[in-house]
């Protein structure tokens, strides 16, 4: 059996917060202190195994398309874990957060049919089959609120708005969850334990080939991104505070060492940004490894990237990030992608120091790798599924399939985002209408001080072809199920926010959105790509993803986008152009001082303000609703029942400023889908090349379209 640290002190896991589970294959709980010590020349091997950003991808399944998706899922990562345990004599398995949210499985248990306090989260049931040793909280652990988080952790969170008695300690994760930089304002202490010192029995070899076992103490410190206070402000404001990741590591690593840890690992739910340290930065991995001594390894996540990345174009190439050795500033480091697509492995060679009576790392023999579930030369071949994980999720899996297949309405038109950046509003208008109605009703009933202000709404094509040529919203005409309606709003963790803005700020908002487009030179005879995107266009400068391309679809708003102008610089207007022209409200030039309410989501209202309004600026948020945008859309469709193109999918608020170009302006989208553009009235779109031949994508599955900007 696993054994708790010897006392329930800070740095250990209090007894009521820890579910004791079965022994972990080779790295077992400590035995007696009378165990014989290894000889000075003893050595051992320890593999630190990491999953990160699982996002409730327990199964290799896409519930909205109701079909298998073998390229994701813990059911396949589990196979890699079991293989690693056969390969290495001692292993320690950790999870790096963003675990409980992301697929409809998580939403079902949190919102559709909420878990009873006596039930264990199904994701934790699946993880229990693998006997994790420790984990940390990601930012998405907070999406469903603190009461829910406390319940699924087994109760015990001492924070305002939470009954710590709700939850059953034997129905928690089954492994310690540690996070040091989220503090309860009620107690002034970390919301969960900041770290744990795991006591394990290490199997080692001596020079004569004999085997010996001896205790080892492993400190595990958890750190999450401080951005939770922005992204889930409505749930956390006034209840918790966050602290800087680097400074938190500097505070606790020496403490863990003083308490006897042989090894110290940091579980950072964050990635790496080496562009300059900033307090409370989102991705501080580079500066933790650079500025905090005493760390034997760091596992990272949040960014859904891979490190080390030994491909031709690795994600992290700055000084100090060694993709060959798998180190950052000399510290072994790993980031294992997301959604169960990979397992991070840091293999340590350990030596017994007979003088100090502790284990130390043989740094010259440390190896780091990311093992993917893809196997063999065929990119569509994956490791086998793990039956234990599949069985653990079976009941929820079937309930969820039935839920997403249930009908809620109908539509007489196809709602599609393939040409949303060219003006097709079919996948956007219903979302905007739902958000606008929801906010307008609330303002009328609860915010009389704003009742006279017009309410508008923005949304974006969240699925804009980045993943593949089928990575678009595509809801066919006819019966609308939960799955179909949910496809209109990708992110189930977004919640409604309403912000008060001026006409001038609406223009800034649209100028920011116009960063989605490259600057087009009318005189160039060469082909030019319209989108600033490494997958569906050509990236120029900082890529601007489709999910940030906000669009109004109200007949009250009209404007032009002039893509011949340079991108607007909100912090220094003299350094850029102005792309938004002829901005009007109800047919008249918009009054820069007029005030509006704009319905959006919590991420846009909080995190996007500096990019839209300028560095250091914030939106005036008049309502941070607890209601998920997706649920608002689902409820709107249920209430409307029948959607028709003329009133729900034909509004177009903008057009490109007309210009004749000497060369072709190209736009890459779904294969053979010109009819979608034509149905949306986009007569200026034609097929340029039926197949993109893998340009920018590594596949040949997109069609390249020509956009005539003179029409």
Automatic annotation (TrEMBL):
Do the record's keywords include Transferase? no
What Pfam families does the entry give?
Answer: 5_nucleotid_C, Metallophos
Keyword hit for Signal: yes
Q: Which residues form a coiled coil?
A: none
Q: Which InterPro entries match?
A: 5'-Nucleotdase_C, 5'-Nucleotdase_C_sf, 5'-Nucleotdase_CS, 5_nucleotidase/apyrase, Calcineurin-like_PHP, Metallo-depent_PP-like
Signal sequence coordinates:
none
Limits of the 5'-Nucleotidase C-terminal domain: 421-606
Going by the UniProt record, its keywords in alphabetical order are:
Hydrolase, Nucleotide-binding, Signal
Which residue range or ranges hold the Calcineurin-like phosphoesterase domain?
A: 50-305
Q: Which NCBIfam families match?
A: PRK09420.1 (NF006938)
Q: Which family does it belong to?
A: Belongs to the 5'-nucleotidase family.
Name this protein carries in UniProt: 2',3'-cyclic-nucleotide 2'-phosphodiesterase
Q: What is the lineage of its organism?
A: Bacteria, Pseudomonadati, Pseudomonadota, Betaproteobacteria, Burkholderiales
């Amino acid at each position: 059996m696993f054994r708790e640290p010897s006392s329930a002190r800070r740095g250990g896991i209090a007894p009521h917060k820890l579910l004791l589970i079965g022994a972990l294959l080779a790295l077992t709980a400590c035995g007696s202190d009378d165990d014989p010590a290894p000889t000075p020349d003893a050595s051992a091997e320890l593999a630190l195994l990491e999953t990160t950003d699982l996002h409730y991808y327990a199964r290799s399944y896409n519930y909205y398309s109701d079909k298998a998706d073998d390229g994701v899922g813990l059911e396949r990562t589990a196979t890699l874990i079991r293989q690693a345990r056969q390969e290495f004599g001692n292993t320690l398995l950790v999870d790096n957060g963003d675990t409980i949210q992301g697929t409809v499985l998580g939403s079902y248990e949190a919102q559709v049919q909420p878990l009873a306090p006596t039930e264990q989260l199904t994701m934790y049931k699946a993880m229990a089959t693998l006997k994790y040793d420790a984990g940390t909280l990601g930012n998405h652990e907070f999406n469903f609120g603190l009461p829910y988080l406390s319940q699924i952790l087994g109760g015990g969170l001492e924070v305002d708005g939470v009954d710590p008695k709700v939850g059953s300690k034997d129905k928690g994760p089954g492994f310690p969850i540690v996070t040091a930089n989220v503090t309860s304002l009620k107690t002034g202490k970390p919301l969960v334990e900041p770290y744990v010192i795991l006591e394990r029995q290490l199997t080692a070899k001596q020079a004569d080939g004999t085997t010996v076992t001896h205790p080892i103490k492993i400190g595990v410190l958890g750190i999450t991104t401080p951005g939770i206070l922005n992204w889930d402000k409505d749930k956390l404001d006034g209840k918790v505070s966050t602290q800087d990741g680097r400074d938190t590591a500097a505070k606790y690593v020496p403490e863990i060492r003083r308490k006897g840890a042989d090894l110290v690992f940091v579980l950072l739910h964050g990635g790496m940004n080496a562009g300059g340290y900033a307090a409370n930065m989102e991705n501080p991995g580079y500066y933790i490894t650079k500025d905090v001594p005493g760390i034997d390894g760091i596992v990272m996540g949040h960014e859904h990237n891979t490190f080390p990345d030994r491909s031709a174009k690795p994600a992290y190439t700055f000084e100090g990030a060694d993709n060959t050795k798998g180190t950052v500033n000399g510290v072994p480091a790993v980031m294992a992608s997301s959604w169960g697509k990979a397992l991070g492995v840091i293999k340590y060679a350990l030596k017994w120091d007979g003088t100090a009576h502790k284990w130390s790392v043989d740094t010259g023999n440390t190896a780091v790798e990311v093992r993917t579930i893809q196997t063999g030369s065929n990119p569509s071949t994956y490791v086998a599924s793990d039956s234990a994980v599949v069985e653990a999720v079976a009941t929820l899996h079937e309930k969820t399939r039935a839920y997403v297949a249930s009908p809620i309405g109908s539509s007489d038109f196809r709602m599609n985002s393939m040409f949303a950046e060219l003006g097709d509003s079919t996948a956007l208008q219903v979302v905007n209408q739902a958000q606008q109605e929801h906010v307008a009703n609330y303002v009328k009933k609860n915010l009389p001080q704003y009742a006279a202000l017009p309410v508008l709404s923005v949304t974006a094509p969240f699925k804009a072809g980045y993943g593949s040529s089928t990575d678009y919203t595509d809801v066919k005409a006819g019966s609308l199920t939960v799955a179909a309606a949910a496809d209109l709003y990708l992110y189930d963790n977004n919640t409604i926010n309403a912000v008060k803005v001026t006409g001038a700020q609406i223009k800034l908002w649209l100028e920011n959105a116009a960063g989605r487009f490259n600057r087009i030179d009318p005189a160039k005879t060469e082909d030019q790509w319209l989108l600033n995107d490494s997958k569906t266009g050509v990236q120029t400068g900082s890529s601007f993803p489709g999910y940030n391309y906000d669009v109004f679809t109200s007949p009250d708003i009209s404007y032009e986008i002039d893509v011949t102008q340079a991108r607007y610089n909100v912090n220094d207007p003299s350094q850029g152009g102005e792309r938004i022209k002829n901005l009007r409200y109800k047919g008249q030039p918009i009054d820069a001082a007029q005030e509006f309410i704009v319905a959006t989501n919590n991420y846009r209202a909080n995190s996007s303000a500096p990019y839209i309004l300028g560095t250091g600026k914030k939106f005036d948020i008049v309502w941070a609703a607890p209601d998920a945008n997706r649920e608002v859309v689902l409820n709107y469709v249920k209430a409307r029942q029948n959607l028709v193109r003329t009133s729900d999918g034909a509004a177009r608020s903008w057009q490109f400023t007309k210009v004749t170009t000497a060369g072709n302006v190209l736009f890459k989208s779904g294969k053979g889908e010109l009819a979608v553009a034509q149905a949306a009235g986009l007569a200026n779109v034609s097929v340029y090349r039926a197949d993109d031949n893998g340009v920018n994508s590594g596949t040949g599955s997109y069609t390249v379209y020509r956009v005539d900007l003179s029409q």
